[in-house]
Amino acid sequence: MLARSVWSAGYAPPFTRPPESKAPAYGALCRNTTRRLPRKPLWHRDIRQNQHTLPCRTVSIPIKSRRRRGWPLQTLRAVRIRLPLCGTVLSLSHTKLSALVTGLALLLLGWCLCSCGRKSIDLTAVTDPHLATNGTVEVTARLVEIPEGAIFKRDLYDYATILKYQVLRVHRGKLDGDALYVGQYNPWKPRAEAADKRAPGIGGNVRQFQAGQVHHLALEVPIEDYFMGGIVNKYFGKTTNTLYWAVWTVLE
Questions:
Q1: Rounded to an integer, what distance in angstroms lies between the CA atom of residue 14 and that of residue 18?
Q2: Dihedral sign computed on CA atoms, order 173, 178, 181, 187
Q3: pLDDT one-digit tens code per residue, 13-63
Q4: How many angstroms separate the Cα of 118 from the Cα of each of 115, 145, 250?
Q5: pTM as predicted
């Protein structure tokens, strides 16, 4: 009521100029929001760590400005890095720098994979010296199949089973054809543990026989001259090829 009476009497209060609006400082509350602005990022500071004893020059890497919804425009200063003098000045944008780092990471990963592959190839390329000193025939062959019931485990029964191979390469000796029928002693055992009093000198690195494996074999022929025990031959009556005796079996 008092204000109405004053205005009606023709009296006006003195003009007061509204305060100038100022942008909220870092850490101050934003307008129409309860969130706080972030503190000054580390990009505003010069990186002075890891100082070198060598002469250094300062390299600037500009970073693009960023704008977020409801936030004022923030112009980030360039990152300044001290690097040893190498005759060139590095000047990369944020996008180019990210692409460079990604490329270097991919290059390092490819180099690691290549080195691992070379190492595995070199290990498999080493030949077992027992292959050249045992048997009269030395071949590289692929195990074609394992007939049903050809391999079984019996602790009190020692036997040899006939497995069919496809010859890939002949290193020593002569063969009748590409199909090779080889007797493996106690095939359920790893080759390093198969030797005993009944069949001494058996060895190799094959732990389990699987169809499709490639084996480097040192063989003797015929099997009757080297093993007098039980023989499981699932190919009996299907072929008349000579049966070989496996002395040393190496997985390739």
A1: 12
A2: positive
A3: 555 555 555 555 544 444 554 555 555 554 444 444 444 444 545 545 444
A4: 5, 30, 20
A5: 0.52
